[in-house]
Specification:
A hairpin with a 3-residue loop joins β9 and β10 (114-117). It contains 18 helices and 31 strands. Bound molecules: zinc ion.
């Protein structure tokens, strides 16, 4: 370090250098001004917002410690924790490298095109000093004069490109502000007086940045006003003084992770708006939904949050039964707020809602776990998906969104709304930790009656939700749509290169009865007697109706572990799924209606 830095130096100081782009290595220098005699440091095992133990320490290497010129002994305590015996009060300097080659929003990435990291992947936690101010120095990247840096951290002394010194009030804030590095597109807007920045990496030359900025601004204004009203002071009441969107556009990818005053997003490059493309585009609507979702989390999970996450334990799973509220209700509002911001019409909104309903209906696991149980088990079920996930659990995103819908429509029947409940909770919980009882109390105080029965049935049981009745009351038509062959048989398949690979078999389905299993390749079928039917190669399930005619019985020929199996299969009669529509005579407007 230089004398220049020491002027600003706080108790905990990190320098994160993009040291070797081709080896994908960040080099981290951590200076602890006043270490304990036995100073413990550790790397988190998970990142808040993504409920899976990811063992970030597997990418940490070459940890060394020095006091002055003296090398200090490091004793490893477990997979992610180290004890360092030092001279108390003498500055301790740790140096290590972090391998960064995960192109997701959850860890870290470094190559010749861009860099990205979350503090949970690169910043060791200094035990006992987490509450002190933490500094992060980002040196400019050698040989890349056009690269910039962007982060939600507070700048102390930075250059025009964003390199330099940043500060965080504590360790939690440091690791809640990911950093984007590279030659990225950047634009700004204000929403209700709050400055916002949007940076995009990986975009095509035809990318229409102005349109993305305009549409995002409308989302942000709709959400700030949702929580804090239409008044002039709405922006002043928001929990954030500024906000940063970091979007990485890739060939094939989707996802986002919420942070206190920023979000990291991934989308398909093809879904970005283009100067020449029409206004409506399904992929772009999905991206706007993602932006809306992560921004809504600024209130709902980063401030108002499960009481179990009042303070994060970075060393192990942090269990909460409330993800159906924090993820599900956020999922309910992400699309509704696109509608309210005027970015989609009623028909598009209802189509998105219909898709969510069918997704839940196609999940047999909804009769095995309640959304509260699914939330608690997120660490071992939803985040560790396999062929049995669909039978074992239910998504707290989709079913949670439908719980919000049922609550909203029920409240509206009694001349209230879920909007008022959300704002009431914000006040009741002082924008902080929340328990399920707080929701029940808020419902009771708003409506003057108990909602225990509804919450028990919708959140804590595996019964289906009363959607048909509540949607009918809103004037939404539910039509039967012919189900696909995969839905009729109860399969999830991939059909690539003329081969039908079975990915999952639904509980209680015809495919399960026949003995089909995940991992099977469905090669062909025998149908009817040889004269009338015969044996056929199968390359996609949609060919089945033509091969079967009126016949419903067939023998499936499948390959499992190189053995050929003949499995008799009865194709169920035609079934149907739901298709929602807004009646044609209904005026376009805010949905749902009071
Ligand atoms: Zn979310």
């Amino acid at each position: 370090m230089t004398n220049h830095d020491e002027t600003f130096m706080t108790a905990i100081h990190y320098t994160v250098e993009a040291a070797d782009l081709h080896a994908h290595l960040f080099r981290v220098t951590l200076t602890i001004a006043e270490p304990a005699a036995l100073q413990t440091v550790s790397l988190p095992v998970w990142i808040p917002g993504s409920y899976l133990v990811r063992e970030f320490s597997k990418n940490l290497q070459n940890l060394q410690a020095k006091q002055g010129s003296r090398k200090v002994t490091i004793t490893q305590r477990n997979k992610c924790t180290w004890d360092i015996a030092c001279n108390e009060g003498v500055p301790l300097v740790l140096q290590y490298e972090v391998y960064a080659f995960d192109n997701s929003v959850r860890t870290a990435w470094l190559d010749s095109q861009r860099g990205f990291f979350n503090g949970t992947s690169v910043c060791l936690r200094v035990h006992g000093q987490e509450k002190l101010a933490h500094q992060l120095k980002l040196p400019a990247v050698k040989g890349h004069p056009s690269w910039q840096a962007a982060t939600g951290l507070t700048p102390v002394k930075t250059d025009k490109r964003g390199f330099g010194l940043y500060t965080a009030a504590n360790y939690d804030e440091l690791v809640d502000c990911p950093v984007e590095l590279g030659h990225f597109w950047s634009g700004n807007f204000t929403a209700c007086g709050i400055p916002h920045r949007f940076v995009v990496a990986g975009n095509l030359p035809s990318f229409d940045g102005e349109r993305l900025l305009d549409d995002t601004q409308r989302i942000c204004e709709a959400e700030i006003q949702f929580w804090h009203g239409q008044g002039k002071l709405a922006g002043k009441k928001a929990p954030h003084a500024d906000y940063l969107f970091m979007l990485n556009a890739v060939n094939d990818g989707y996802g986002g992770l919420e942070h206190r005053n920023s979000t990291a997003l991934i989308c398909n490059r093809a879904d970005l708006p283009r100067q020449t493309s029409p206004r409506t585009n399904e992929g772009y609507t999905t991206l706007l939904g993602l932006i809306s979702h992560e921004y809504f989390h600024t209130w709902n999970v980063k401030q108002l949050r499960p009481d179990a996450l009042a303070s994060y334990d970075y060393t192990q799973e942090n269990y909460t039964p409330l993800l159906w509220f924090f993820e599900g209700f956020t999922s309910y509002y992400d699309d509704i707020l696109l509608r309210r911001a005027g970015l989609i019409d009623d028909a598009t909104y209802i189509k998105l809602l219909g898709k969510t309903i069918v997704q839940v209906q196609q999940t047999p696991g909804r009769h095995v776990q309640s959304v509260a149980q699914a939330s608690y088990d997120a660490w071992v079920k939803y985040y560790r998906q396999d062929e049995n996930t669909v039978n074992a659990t239910v998504s707290y995103y989709t079913k949670g969104a439908l719980v919000a819908l049922c609550l909203d429509l029920s409240l509206r029947k009694e001349s209230h709304s879920l909007d008022a409940v959300m704002r009431g909770l914000w006040k009741r919980c002082k924008a902080g930790p929340m328990r399920e009882q707080d929701l029940l109390d808020e419902l009771q105080s708003l409506t003057g009656r108990s909602w225990d029965k509804e919450i028990k049935a919708w959140v804590h049981s595996t019964l289906d939700l009363p959607l048909r009745e509540l949607l009918a009351h809103q004037g939404i038509d539910i039509q039967a749509e012919t189900s696909t062959m995969t839905q009729r048989l109860g399969l999830r398949v991939s059909e690539v290169g003329g081969s039908v690979q079975i990915k999952a078999v639904m509980r209680g389905s015809a495919a399960e009865t026949a003995g089909l299993a995940a991992g099977d390749e469905w090669l062909g079928l025998e149908v009817g007697n040889k004269a009338q039917g015969g044996s056929w190669r199968l390359s996609k399930l949609d060919d089945l109706p033509a091969l079967l005619g009126r016949e419903r019985k067939l023998t499936a020929l499948v390959s499992r572990d190189k053995r050929l199996l003949r499995l008799p299969l009865s194709v169920p009669a035609q079934a149907s799924t739901w298709q929602l529509s807004v009646p044609k005579d209904r005026a376009s407007g805010q949905w749902p209606a009071a």
